[in-house]
Design brief:
The structure holds 2 protein chains of 2 kinds. Chain A is of the alpha/beta class. Chain A has 8 helices and 7 strands, in the order βαββαβαβαβαβααα. Chain A has a single domain, classed as Alpha-Beta Barrel (TIM Barrel). Helix content of chain A is 43%, strand content 16%. In chain A, α6 crosses α7 and α7 runs parallel beside α8. The termini of chain B are far apart. By secondary structure, chain B is α+β, with helices and mostly antiparallel strands. The chains are: A alpha/beta, B alpha+beta. The interface between A and B is large, with 38 and 37 residues.
Chain lengths: 223, 172
């Protein structure tokens, strides 16, 4: 019952950043039970590829993953790519960078911020920016996975306390990295996420983010 | 030794799994990797409680057993597997059942696709030239030594370019 929802993997990579084409990711995701994916490459790997469906795979929407080194660079990147893409994902960095990302009205997701606290959590809630949990780090072993788990556990605690929207994503760099929704939920359980929270973080919250982009584009056409 | 009466046996669940791998992997290598992954994730104590054991595995499909109340943990262990003996792999749980027979009948039998069609055709797709080494329905793996392709595969740590029939622009 609970797993009858529409699932979306809000952050995957594709060609030319990685070895799998957009269509291949879409087919592989559909096979695992997703109805949509968002391909968000780094800015240097942007192509003229279009969003849409290949007919039989998961619906593909385009986003961009920004990982600027300083806040001023972030503003430039947002000005440059904000109009072009449905979803803007910012990779967490220094505290100043995270703060700048959470103050921007165009950013949709702040992903894996290591420097995250109660002040930033309130900012995220007030500006309706989702906190992203990229499970890529949980597929490593040893110290990197321990650090990833600790970070996710802390971020989840803050998100719960301040009511910040949460999304779960694979951050897949190939179709071998994609994980089915139930597997994503099982991985999220490792840092304390409940089944209900995982389902929401894979369905309604990412769906809201995609619809927000579409609504805003629609508004521009009307005005 | 007399077998335990049914009421005293521990409860078990059987996971029907499907593994997508670059090249064929053997049951013993997969078993060793599951063992490894469980040990790394939950330690020796947690792994023993999880009771993971591979019952059968062939041609990308298999059955894995776990303790009745540890299904989520078992899923987590399987989800952390990214490679078996250096071959990239992704594992998906197709379904969970209470007996080997139910798991096989419900989740494996009807679902086996014909995984054939391996021919070395020269193919062009998304600006990359290479040889198609495997095709499963619409998905094609391409072996390429283009400079661009090699860089992409390094970033993904894979051996093949993943494409689909919709990407092909030229076939020789």
């Amino acid at each position: 019952m609970m797993f009858a929802s529409r699932f979306i993997d809000i952050h995957v990579h594709a060609m030319p950043q990685c070895a799998d084409s957009q269509n291949r990711m879409s087919l592989a995701a559909a096979r695992m039970g997703y109805t949509g994916i968002c391909v968000a490459n780094l800015p240097e790997f942007i192509t003229g590829a279009a969003s849409g469906t290949s007919g039989i795979g998961a619906e593909v929407r385009l986003g961009v993953e920004l990982c600027p080194d300083k806040p001023s660079r972030l503003e430039k990147d947002i000005a440059k790519y904000g109009q072009q893409f449905d979803v803007i994902i910012v990779r967490g960095g220094s505290e100043e960078l995270n703060e700048a990302a959470l103050k921007s009205s165009r950013v949709d997701i702040l992903e894996n911020p290591l420097e995250f606290n109660h002040v930033l959590a309130k900012l995220a809630r007030d500006n309706h920016i989702a906190l992203g949990f990229n499970i890529g780090g949980l597929l490593l072993r040893g110290s990197q996975r321990i650090q990833a788990l600790s970070m996710h556990r802390k971020n989840l605690m803050l998100a719960r306390k301040y009511g910040v929207p949460v999304v779960l994503a694979s951050g897949a760099r190939s179709h071998y990295d994609l994980r089915a929704p139930r597997e994503m939920a099982a991985l999220a359980m490792l840092f304390g996420m409940t089944l209900e929270e995982s389902v929401r973080a894979l369905s309604t919250t990412p769906l809201d983010i995609l619809n927000k982009g579409r609504l805003m584009q629609g508004l521009e056409v009307v005005v | 030794m007399k077998p335990l009466p049914p009421t005293l046996r521990e409860r078990r669940r059987y996971l029907a799994i499907e593994a997508y791998s670059e090249d064929a992997i053997s049951q013993s290598d997969l078993a060793a990797e599951i063992w490894n992954a469980a040990g790394s994730l939950f330690g020796d104590k947690g792994s023993s409680e999880c009771g993971l054991r591979i019952i059968s595995f062939k041609g990308g499909h298999g059955i894995v057993r776990c303790s009745g109340d540890m299904v989520r943990e078992a899923r987590a262990v399987l989800a952390t597997i990214t490679a078996v003996k250096g071959t990239r792999v992704g594992i998906m749980v197709r379904g969970v059942a209470g007996t080997i027979r139910a798991a096989t009948e419900k989740y494996i039998l009807g679902d086996i696709e014909l995984r054939a069609e391996t021919g070395e055709k020269e193919i062009r797709c998304s600006g990359i030239t290479g040889k198609a080494v495997r095709r499963v329905v619409d998905e094609i793996d391409i072996l390429s030594d283009d400079q661009n392709a090699v860089q992409m595969m390094n970033r993904s740590s894979t051996r093949y370019i993943g494409a689909t029939v919709f990407d092909i622009t030229d076939r020789r």
